[in-house]
Amino acid sequence: MAGLARRDVDGDISARAARAWWDAHARQYLLEHGTFLDAGLIWGPEGANELELAILAPYDGSVGLEIGSGAAQGAAYLATLGARVIAADISFEMLKGAKHDLLVQTDGRLLPFPDEIFDFVFSAYGALPFLPDAGRVLAEWRRVIKPGGRLVFSVTHPIRWAFPDSPNSDGLTASGSYFDRRPYVEENDLGEVIYTEHHRTIGDWIGAINVAELQLIRLIEPEWKSSNAQIWGGWSPLRGAHLPGTAIFACQRPN
Ligand SMILES: C[S@@+](CC[C@H](N)C(=O)[O-])C[C@H]1O[C@@H](n2cnc3c(N)ncnc32)[C@H](O)[C@@H]1O
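Above are the sequence and the S-adenosylmethionine SMILES. Below is the predicted complex in structure-token form.
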């Protein structure tokens, strides 16, 4: 019977599920959120954007990689500022929505690039939330960054895992444990895994960054913009007024 579970699930099953799920839902996702995401490099539903934060600057002449790029809006935006950015995603259907030329379909766990070629790697809610073993994935991303280069990624703020995924007031009362690291898993009628999300606490993320031999430079918890009236799943102006929804980890590969 189809259902939801909190249980362990390995990387291969998670990646296979992500690929099929995002292929099947790409059209809907881009219909719902495309206009919002087309506004630049958007780090999360709060509306925090690279134009204001400039975490990846300087752009002109730099070479970057966006992982879990979806329709590559971030890469396309940085290209307007003079960067050359490859956008990579596991889902062909997500990449098909891109208005950008440098596209690669790949699993973010194993990048088809040589060592130390990018000035920066970034990801807005891409790949990492859908995979176990964040330390190993980040180490692979670090491999392709030049010494001194940056790795910046945003994910659902870990505190959200203790609250129901609702944009309304019931989403403001903690119902689960922040410390429950079991992945969220959806299964179909045959018991096959069709969707996964993997939770890490703030401390777990910092541990994974250390395992990958990266230095954490900034942890940004963007506040909900007053001009932003959208509801995006469990994210909303109401919840945004009370709880962080996104965590942006800005790291550096040591020299
Ligand atoms: C929430 S969407 C984010 C897309 C885009 N960054 C944005 O902000 O709209 C997550 C993306 O991660 C991609 N993804 C999931 N697992 C992946 C993996 N193992 N390797 C590469 N991309 C993956 C999905 O295909 C999807 O495009």
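The chain has a mean pLDDT of 98.
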